[in-house]
Every structure is written in structure tokens, then in C-alpha cells.
Amino acid sequence: MAKAPAAAPAAEEGGEVEAKPKKPIVKIILGVVGVIVMLVGTVFGTLFFSGYFNPKPPVDPDAAEAADGHAGQGKKDGKDGKSAKPAKLAKKSPESTRFEYNYMQIEKDFLVNIMNSKKVMSISLAVMTHYDERVFANVKKHDFALRSAILDILRQVPESEVNKPEFRVELSRKIRDAMNTLLEKYEDFGGIEEVLYTNFVIQ
Fold it and tell me: What fold is seen in the domain 102-202?
């Protein structure tokens, strides 16, 4: 009877199987990070040395306007090449002086009878303006016309209006508007901003 072939010797119990070597994961990650850092440093260095981070000079709006719309015009319209705006032609009128108050006393008083009454009203007036002396020169120039207009207003004051609290304020506004209307008619400019009482008597 033939003998069965002998079985291959079994691996020894407790024997260690040779493990495959593990990949160096940490070294790969460090290598990738290093490459990224080098690329970023290269880009940053290129931008820095090319002047990308230098502050840009301020843009002159006049120069930009000249480059957009006036290129090639040169010194045709002015020393700096900009077109001079046409000035409006108007009759000379007093220039405004901010925060400066100018006053003028009207020389003669106004004396009138109150309408439908035996009472008499006597007032002295002064005018105020923020403009220059030409307003006062015009007031003196047209003294007769202005006095006539003021007297017409005063003659129309009824006795029933005299005792009202706002009477004097409203009367000064009417006189101011009448004076400015006449000055605008004759001089194209009024300029009287307030009419003030320096004396006001009703008796």
C-alpha cells in the first residue's frame, strides 16, 4: 500500500509574518507644504520687486479732465489748457458781504393822519442791508419816489390796525417791500433787508 506524500511542514506557530513597509505620509505632507510655501514666496517677491505694493500717486482731476476731453487742445483756451467759462453780463449790483450789517437813517421824519381818525402818526425810519454803500446811494438818489410810496402806505393805516400786537412789524414789512419794488424798477436791484423804527409816535 503506497504511502501518501508527506505534508509540507506547517509554519511555526508564533512566527511573525514580515509586514510591508509603511509609506512616509508625514514626509509627503511636509514636502507638499514646502512646495506651496515656495510658490507663494516667489509670487510675493515678484510683486514686491515690481513695485505692485508701492502707494499710487494721487490723481489730479484737472489733469484727468484734460486727458479725457481736452487732449490736443493745448493752450488754446487758457494757460493750463482748460476752457474759460463765459461770464454773465449783468448790470452792476451791490455784492453781498456776509455777516456785515450796514445801516442808514432816512433823514426826514414821516408825519401822516391816521385814516378815519383824528390821531396823527409820526415815525422815523432807518434801513439795513448786507450789501455795500450802493444800496444807500440808490435810496438817496430816489428819495422823492421812496418817500411818496412810504407816505401812501402810512395814509392807508386804519385806526383799528394800530392797536394790534403785530401792527408795527407788518407795517415795516410793507414799507420794505415798497422800497425794494421801486429800487428794482429804477436800478434793477433792491437790497433793503429790514426797515427799522428809530421813532414811532401816535397821538
Answer: Tetrahydropterin Synthase; Chain A (3.30.479)
